[in-house]
């Protein structure tokens, strides 16, 4: 009880100093709990949606990852409906005609498809739709030319009943009038959904009145879903051509598809939370180390009057538990708020999640509490152990710890060994011959070098801070020299404070180098490899036949190249059968994409019954120039194709591709199995690039999903995609940097308290308030720049090594984004200034006489 009272007294006495450490715990726990609450809510919400939409038993086309991807929906024959109706235990059969291969535009010809990556879905309206949505405005679609639109898409694009929509699908384009608005009863999964009558959906989406995309079966009373599935499978002779699922299986299948997305999001967010926790450890270690140092005399007195070492240890650890509990409880509440914020963010992207269905599992607050308390306890353990080693007599006479010097040397040696081992691992990764082997060494190198820099930080502080001070602080005269000495007074503390900032900035620098190198490599490959003037693609879909015809009508174009992918089974000379995707294109593709051939000529791969293989494939399977390979088109006939070229693997475009003439693919595949054109390339007439661009854009003006890009546009697209990903990662890393900044603030605040008497003496001998504030700010700036220098240097080493591994995949250009690196370094100085505002203000306000009188 005495230990608890003492701990409570000390905790409350230093509540202001503990506050920033509690904020670090709060942020870390909030990120973890917020992630768990958000993903649990998503899972629970979608469970309800999937349960409301799944039929008792569904019959759909057989799913095959190796099937021919034609760009058109897979279907089942409409005649199957009669057979299913006769199956024992079937009460009702509901046919579905659904497609995601469509684009929907409003009357201004602007796409209303989601920009979040969610699909646009066209489907027929039937009774089963009423399980998940209800028509809140207008009525059901009754015939051709009528459609119902989901409410969220209608609200986002300001559409209402009576407005016209244009639907662009593979079978052709058509227009409909909105006659109703449907509102989801549970949640909108983020898709844009348009409902048609069944006949229109069949003819316009699937291209045939004799096809459906699937059937939903309702079980008769007394028949279980499992029994009905067995009856259906038996009636369909084993259902080899179909996928037959119960409602539970359909729900699990949908959850699996969603789960992969949620898992990526969940573990990414938890990963960044882990980084924040790691950074918070430095803050808490520093806080308790300084509090123990400031209470050296007090601890000595306690030992002198009979307190044992275990009691001192428990006293410090109880303070840590109190800090952990306080920060964790606040963090749990903050996590719930963060989850709500994430749900609102998803709502702005089109996925409506109802906050009334917020799911907080019992495990979530327990996990948050455990993380907060355990991390705080472990962080406080070393300072607590150090407190128990304080000798009563040495403490009472303010003697230092005689073991400090020896411990510092041991630490320095360990740090240098770890850093050297990390550097060796990074060098091994850079020289790796395969990406898989190099990735393991890269991970090891990152871990060892990071730990090494953290451990060796105090040793580096003595050198680096002096160099930085010579450049940054000496211009401020005596005040700058005082700031330098303050930063060097306790190298271990300076090193720990800077290390917290170092971690976040190292990741920022490493990712910046990787991102910049990816863009530079892709740009370099584009310049070297792409001979076409224009690249024509559709958003997340192939080009429809009508769109292709319109594009081909453009003028000022020397030639067009059609490009698609064909699934085929290739029998190699070593007797192996490999199912792979062959690139089928017009012969002009050899001009539009300049891929080096190590044997033969790529242009000859586009001859009749000819093909090319990549050099890695040829080496693995013993393929030689002139060999005839047996190639069976999936869904088509067998062909004997002659290998007329072996292409280089040293490229990032079409790396590992096998090429053949698109006419060859058409000759061995029936028309309904031939994939739609995935992309078109265009070469302008000599000197007619501007005119060709204008003509092509005019040709696709009725197709909002199609983009015509020249090489400059394509480079900007690549850069934009990489920048978007990096900005998202930087935003998440900002949490770790915020925690690190709090560490700087806390260190300075405690340092000011620790140096109260010294500050009073400096003021007494003539240092002005302004000079005092400047001294604290300069000390903060040099610590922040020290952390930034270590972090940016370490991050650039990680990034350069990562680029060497990416070079194995064809991304061979190393590009250091110096503007970003310099901006981050300069920004660190600003961060240091901001972090010092409150501690500097407090130091400047101290009463001189009271400060001098302080023990």
TrEMBL record:
<keyword id="KW-0472">Membrane</keyword>
<feature type="transmembrane region" description="Helical">
    <location>
        <begin position="362"/>
        <end position="385"/>
    </location>
</feature>
<feature type="domain" description="ABC3 transporter permease C-terminal">
    <location>
        <begin position="732"/>
        <end position="847"/>
    </location>
</feature>
<dbReference type="Pfam" id="PF12704">
    <property type="entry name" value="MacB_PCD"/>
</dbReference>
<feature type="region of interest" description="Disordered">
    <location>
        <begin position="95"/>
        <end position="127"/>
    </location>
</feature>
<keyword id="KW-1003">Cell membrane</keyword>
<feature type="transmembrane region" description="Helical">
    <location>
        <begin position="267"/>
        <end position="293"/>
    </location>
</feature>
<dbReference type="Pfam" id="PF02687">
    <property type="entry name" value="FtsX"/>
</dbReference>
<dbReference type="InterPro" id="IPR003838">
    <property type="entry name" value="ABC3_permease_C"/>
</dbReference>
<dbReference type="InterPro" id="IPR025857">
    <property type="entry name" value="MacB_PCD"/>
</dbReference>
<dbReference type="InterPro" id="IPR050250">
    <property type="entry name" value="Macrolide_Exporter_MacB"/>
</dbReference>
<feature type="region of interest" description="Disordered">
    <location>
        <begin position="61"/>
        <end position="80"/>
    </location>
</feature>
<feature type="transmembrane region" description="Helical">
    <location>
        <begin position="444"/>
        <end position="477"/>
    </location>
</feature>
<keyword id="KW-1133">Transmembrane helix</keyword>
<feature type="transmembrane region" description="Helical">
    <location>
        <begin position="778"/>
        <end position="800"/>
    </location>
</feature>
<feature type="transmembrane region" description="Helical">
    <location>
        <begin position="498"/>
        <end position="520"/>
    </location>
</feature>
<keyword id="KW-0812">Transmembrane</keyword>
<feature type="domain" description="ABC3 transporter permease C-terminal">
    <location>
        <begin position="272"/>
        <end position="392"/>
    </location>
</feature>
<feature type="transmembrane region" description="Helical">
    <location>
        <begin position="728"/>
        <end position="753"/>
    </location>
</feature>
<protein>
    <submittedName>
        <fullName>Putative ABC transport system permease protein</fullName>
    </submittedName>
</protein>
<feature type="domain" description="MacB-like periplasmic core">
    <location>
        <begin position="494"/>
        <end position="695"/>
    </location>
</feature>
<dbReference type="GO" id="GO:0005886">
    <property type="term" value="C:plasma membrane"/>
</dbReference>
<feature type="compositionally biased region" description="Polar residues">
    <location>
        <begin position="97"/>
        <end position="114"/>
    </location>
</feature>
<comment type="similarity">
    <text>Belongs to the ABC-4 integral membrane protein family.</text>
</comment>
<feature type="transmembrane region" description="Helical">
    <location>
        <begin position="316"/>
        <end position="342"/>
    </location>
</feature>
<feature type="transmembrane region" description="Helical">
    <location>
        <begin position="820"/>
        <end position="841"/>
    </location>
</feature>
<feature type="transmembrane region" description="Helical">
    <location>
        <begin position="412"/>
        <end position="432"/>
    </location>
</feature>
<dbReference type="GO" id="GO:0022857">
    <property type="term" value="F:transmembrane transporter activity"/>
</dbReference>
<feature type="domain" description="MacB-like periplasmic core">
    <location>
        <begin position="19"/>
        <end position="234"/>
    </location>
</feature>
